[in-house]
Structure formats: structure tokens, C-alpha cells
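To fix ideas, we close by showing one paired sequence and structure record:
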Amino acid sequence: MSKKYWLLFIIIINCSILSSQNSEIRKNYEATRIQEAPKIDGLASEEVWKKAATAEKFVMVEPGDGTPIPESHATEVKILYDDLAIYIAATMKESDPDKTIRQFTQRDNLQQSEYFLMDINTYDDGENQTRFIVTSAGTQADARITGSQEDYGYNVVWESAVSKDENGWYLEMKIPYSALRFPETEKQRWGLQFSREITHRNETYVWNYINKSVGQMAQYTGLLTGINNIDPPVRLSLYPFIQSAFDSFDGSDDFSFNAGMDLKYGINDSFTLDMTLVPDFGQTAYDEVELNLGPFEQIFGENRAFFTEGTELFNKGNLFYSRRVGSTPIGFNTAQTSRLDSEEIIENPSRTDLLNALKVSGRTDRGLGIGVFNAITSEAKAVFRDTLTGNTRSKITEPLANYNIVVLDQRFNKNSSITLINTNVTRDGNFRDGNVTGFLFDVYNKANSFNVEGQAKMSNVNLPGQNLTGFASYFAARRTKGNFRYRVAHEFANETFDINDLGINFTNNYNNIFWGTSYQIFEPQGNLNNFQISLYGQHLRRYKPDKTINTGMGGDFFAMTRERFAFGGSLDFNSKFRDYFETRAENTYVTYKPFASSRFFISSDYRKKFAIDSRIYVEEYFDTDYAYYGLSIEPRFRFSDRFNMVYEFDYGLQKERPSFVNKVNDNIIFGIRDQKTVENSIRANYNFNTKQGLSLSARQFWSTASFGDNSFQKLIAEGELEPTSYDTNTFRDPDANFNIWNLDLSYRWQFAPGSEAVLLYRNSIFNEDKLSELNYSDSLDNLFSKPARHNLSLRVVYFIDYNNLRNIFRS
């Protein structure tokens, strides 16, 4: 990190000593202790509720700012507690109950239902909160909130029930202490916020006022007091599972059975251990694979629950790409080149098996967050068979590997943090190892009006006989208060920076500058509830050699009307672009002409039975025929409160793009490519109730890449191209026709709190060939003439709470 960065960082630290909690007076609610717990039935009819104080006088947070809730929709909340849990009762008045939107959904899926929300911050640090939501239909949702990030992969076991009558709807909640982390102190002091979403009025109200123009919403909690002399329970939960699957493909059938367990253990009042033993991810959602013709790997979202829940600490600094754990062996592609002329490959696993994984995370009452992550993957081998002798041999493509992350994150002033993080991957034997260390800071001033953020990262890659050390940094300063805001940022990486053993970085060797300014409204104006307009720009440079990559600027806007019709777009202009990665050669680039791009989208009101999203994208390169056009249409239908469906159609056309084809002798060969892409997908849900539902997900993706016979060129000086001959019969034919189909149909039943059974049927087909001249219909016929893979699996997970088990044995 440069001296000027350190100096500015120290100045900001010195001027950020005081608390950043907003200057508004915080509301306070004092809970009432009880001896006999109420029944959770949504009625709140027991006498004990009459003893509790009432939290009321909610104020608007969306779309307005602080307007008191009307008496016709008055909302009241009460809290009780005992030695085991806290209990919440809420009354939501409604002058016209028939307008209340109730949509049956499964856990963590709110759709358009109206809901009640409670945030609890047991350390009152203005940052880390646990969120509990109950919809008007009774669906539960829970999440961990870190700043503005919502992690709905977080799941704990708690109880709720709703009821309704001609005056509105009502709910009761029971949050056991085993679902919370709190300090072991005589008197608890927790941050508290309530919120009510009135969807049919397009309004959201909160108990403690939130100033949207300053800071983050997590910093505007009230106080929950009165909870005294409670002991943190033993937080031990077991999730044993069994899974069986039948797989059929091209005349070959296979049956498998697996059993394992996930475990959660509260080490103390602050820290939790999560483990997965003998994991099985056979029912995770399929990846949206595409035809990838670029120089970088395709990135997929994480669908494995263990790697999505409670990972906010491990994601600091963007050094953790969880799909690295259990990914393709590092020697998968080289297995083909290791094959002798007389050999064939009979086995080459495309994934490594995860043996076990654990994570320990939490935060002390002084704001120190500590995270430890470890995972171990098994050895993978490619097996070769000699076609002449019949002998076989094997080659290790990925040895036993150990993945580790250690994080220390110190929060202070309720809005700022300093973080130290290390990630490392150690592979057994003479293979590649990686180690990355990052120092991060994110600091706000006392008034929450200004923020500076910085990162310094050091990478070390140990290869057989070679050790490469890299460095990267990032610094940004921004105004974070008021209608007008601005930001400037600088990012740097040298040519050896590499975090790809456990993280992901496509590029290095850069020295870039960014800037931006924006104007936004926080209260409705005219017919608009929300409006924001931004101007931005960037100057991208290569670090070594020092060359300009690109300079560009643009603007975008977003608006939403009072009737929830959203629209927006952007317009960008860019200078010529030197691409050092498309060439697949070091210190070599191809030059693309200056270009302009524009986007526009609309999104209609989701509260209606029918709604639609649509996006248009156009990119034009000057003085050339290179262009790209994209169109997306996504209608959604809510047939009833139980059945909804979303269809998405995407079309893309890339014309006359100069693209890498091959390396022949010392020449880098490019070709002029046309690429067409069509994607159709359907997502549908039918929910019998909030515990049982059917889900359908289907996707068909088709893409072709066509290179004309006389379209080939070779790369010459200054990134220019000149025509050349290229024989596709002798060398690699770059044409491609890619088609894939996936279908998932599942039945999910939550038969007990924290326990569920999932029956899943899968159907998938894949085809890739060189027939790029085929039209969509003929290519689809070819796809469905291929053998399909059918998979039927059943997974049952049962939740066991140590405290309940102990009580059973005691009784």
C-alpha cells in the first residue's frame, strides 16, 4: 500500500473515534419476564400478553420518510421472555382485509405476500443482525444481515403462527435462545427493529425511524432491554440425512445410497462450529452452463447450502470462490496430453469429492469477528488403458487437498471495520499450492457522511521449482450522505498476482482509476417513488508495460413510479480497447475499435396477476461491422395464491466479432465470428401450504458460433489483424453448435421444524458439434434425438436439538 493510502487511512481512523449511531433518539422496549409460555397459535389470547408493554407508532420508511402509519393500519408488537425463549405477538390492523396479499410460498421465499419483520442485534453493534420474517400466509424467512448484505442461506429453527379476522391479521413467534448468539451477561442490551410491509399499499413502516439519506438501515435500531438473568443454552443441533438415487443414461443404470450429517455447535456465547460429514450434494440446482468461447472460465453460483450459509466473514475481500472446493482437478485437461499413442482414457473425473468441511465463526462482545474455514477433498486419478496390451495405468490429476481460511474482523464505531484474512490451499505431493493474505479497512466518519475503503493483498503461488509472489491494492473514497454523492477509486495488481487456488481473478497487471457522481431522491416526488441518475467513468491501464487499455464514460438512471412500474437504462462511450487476454499469449494484445453501448429495461408491478420484465442491450463498434444485440422478455403469471410461473426468453446476436481461433507455428490466428444465442427457461411453483410444495425448473440453451471460409486473419503489430489462409480440415475447426436441456421437478415437505424430505426428478440432455449452420428447430431436433439422463432421488433430513433431546431423557 502506498504512503498516501496509509496517511489517509490513519487520518480517517483518528477522526472516527465516536459512535456513528444516528442522532435520532432511539426507541426503547422493555420485555416482560413470564413463568408460563404462551401457546404459539397466532391468537395471543393468553392473559400473559396483557402484562407486556406495547411497541407502536410505526413510521414510514418506503416510499416516504417518517410519515406516521395511519390508524386504519396501526401496528402493535409485544415481547415476553422466559428462561428458554423470547415470544413476540404482533397485531396488523387492516381496514380492507380482502386486499391483504397472501401468497403461499416455501421457507425464505416471500414473493408478494405482506409480512412482518423483526431484526435482533444481540451485540448492538450496528452491523450484524438476525432477521425473522413471517408472511401473512404464514411462511417463515430468516437471514443474517451484515451491513446491507442479506444472507437468506442462514437457517435456524423457530416457531410462528398467523391468524386473521375482519380487522386485520395477527402473528405469534417463539425465538429460542438456541437460535441466537448473545453475550453471557446479567443484563442484555439488544438492538431491535420491527417492520411491516403493506404490499397492496406499496408502503413499508418501521418502529424505529430510519434516515435513508445517511448511513445504512442496520444502524437505525431501537433498544430491547429488560431481558435479564438468562443463560445461553447448549447450542448443539444435528442434521442427519439419508439419500438414495437412481440414475439411468444410455442403457446404463446405477443405484446409490448415502448417509451423512451436518452439525452445528455453539462453542460459547459468541462462536459456532458448522460441520458437514460425508456430504452429498446430489440435489443441488444445476449450473446454467453456456457456450464459452472466451479466454476465461465460466463462473457459477454456489448451490450447496454449507457454502452459502453464514459465510459473510469468509467473503471479505472477495478472496473466496467456494466452487473451488470440489472443483475440476488441476490436471484434468493435461490428462489428454499425458496419453500415449496406443492408450485411451477410460476414467478422468471432472470433479473432486469433498470428504468433510467445517467452519467456525462468530463475534465477541467487543466487536471482534473470527472465522476459520477448513475443507478436505480427496485424490482424483485419470486411468489409461493400452489398446494393444490391455494394461492399465493411472495418473493423479488432483492430490489430497486442504483448503483453509482464517479471518479477523474488528468492528468499531458501529459502522467501520478493519480485517485481516488469509486463504491457503495445500496439495499433497509435488503440486501447486497457493497462499493469499489481505488487509482491508472500511471506515466511516462520525456523521456517516464520508467513507474510505481500502484493500492490500499479497499472493504466493508455489509451483514445482518456482515461487511467484503478487500484490494488489484497492482504495476508494465516497460521500455517503444526501441527495448528491460522489466516489473515486483506484485499483492495482502486478503481473504475478494470482488468487485462483481458492479465489478467482480473471485479470492482473492493471492500474485503473474510476470516478462517479449521482443524484437520488429519498421521498416521492410527483409520480415517482424512487429516482436515481449517475455519471461515471474509468481509465484502464496495463501496469507492465505501461499502456492505456481503455478510457470510457457513461451514465445511467433508475426510476419507479407510485404504481411500482420501474424503468431505467444506461449509455456508455469507450475509446479503443487493447485486449491482452483474447490472444491467449503473454504481452500480446488485439485492438478493438472504439464503441458505444446502451441498455434499457422495464419492470411492471409484481402485485398484479400478470407482470413482465424486459431488457434491451445494444453495442456498436465504430468503423467496423462488429456489433452485439440482446433482448430479454420475462413474463410472470400468478394464477392463484398457490400457483405461480415465470417464463424467460433471451436472445443474443453477436456479429462480425474478431475472435481467437488457434495458434499455428508462430502465428496467432483470429476469425470473424457470428454467434447466435437463444435461451428458454420456466420456473413454476405450486404450494399446497407453507410446508409442502411442488417446484419445476426447466432450461434449454442453444448457441452457435460461425466463422466464414474467408474470415481468418493473423495478429500483427499494434494489435492489428491482416487476412491469412487457414485450413479447417487440417487445423481446429472453430465452428460450434451447443445445445443443452435441464429439467428439475421436486416435491418438498417440511414434516417437522428443521426437518424435510425432498423427492427430485431430473432430466438432462447435452449435445455439442460443429453444425453451426443448423437453424434453431433442426438443432433442437438433434438435441432430443440424443440419449437423456434420468435421475430420481429422495433425501430426508431430520433436525435434532440437543436441548429437546435432553428434556426427553429427563422426563
Remarks:
- The two ends are 62 Å apart (CA to CA).
- Helices lie at 3-14, 334-337, 776-784, 802-810.
- Residues 1-23 have pLDDT under 50 and may be disordered.
